Amino acid sequence: MKDLRIGMIGYGFMGKAHSNAYQKVNRFFDLQTRPVLQALCARDQQIAQQFANNWGYASVESDWRALIERDDIDAVDICVPNHLHREIAVAAAEAGKWVLCEKPLSMNVAEAVEMTEAVEKAGVPNMVWFNYRRVPAIALAKQLVDEGRIGKPFHYRGTYLQDWTIAEDVPQGGATLWRLDAAAAGSGVTGDLLAHSIDTAMWLNGPITRVVADTETFVRERMHQDTGQVQPVEIDDACMFLARFQNGSMGTFESTRYARGRKNFNTFELNGHDGSCHFDLEDPQYLDFYEHTRKADGQKVEDHLTGWRRIHTTNFEHPYMDRWWVPGCTIGYEHTFINALADFLIGVEKGEAAQPDFRCALQTQMVCDAVLESARTCEWANVPGMTVKR
Asked: What are the extents of the domains in the chain?
């Protein structure tokens, strides 16, 4: 087994999720590669040391450039605010390091292109942590689509609703609320939440070709934690858009942080000629499936027992579940990162680019930018064509 020495930059919520994945992946997946928590990098040396001690990192750095220059670092994991992704990713690729990056890939398409070209020029393995693909129920939906059980697609509906920014006294910026600061995040729910929805949609239903969108910022001014001054809020609190897919189907997407009572309500429904499927992240062990036709003697026939069925995705034949517990026992949010890491490492071991890589995430960024452009102009916006393996 070969060690893969990890240098992680950032220690927040995603830093915990990724660190847990590095620690656990070899305990559940048979791999030729073993992640080693080599170094943790953050500006606050004391907090970084506390995080490193808790999670088992061997050393601490306060300068990400020093971490990238180290000979004992093989892979760099970027878990910092979006405005830092480009510079770190490009430098890591040029240093020959593997690069793993939190979503969204970047602040905008221009940065995403630069990052993608850097990792491809360097020939280094790369991945973006769109972990929801690794929810067993969502992976099962992909399997149903690939098996032709949905048939010709007509409609795709995606929602991602939260409620944590409704209060007007919630500040923006700083280490904890940088997602509300456009200078650090680039956008609001479009880059944070809809990036997940868009990635899932295109994984299941193919490329999005054009969009028309509207956004809203409900609280226009908030105190900035770094300056103590009240400043304009420039991110989108809510976004709705219509989409057309390359396969001819229609899509609707909605995301907001102002849906009172919704904590992480990430759903999708895909309707096709032969069936439909529906998923809700707040009840993640289930996939709802409607089968209009079934196969009999090699032919598709209508069934007198049609109806929605709720599939409890915990059996060994369901995606990833042969690696976890006995049927009937569910897995949780943290396991999706372990599954994602395992897929990435298996892909590298096989000489294949496990998805989603930077080029795949670039297409998602193109859709995000088109959504924001459409909201600005109040017109349909085309998504630049790019063929990627999803």
From this structure: 2-131, 132-382
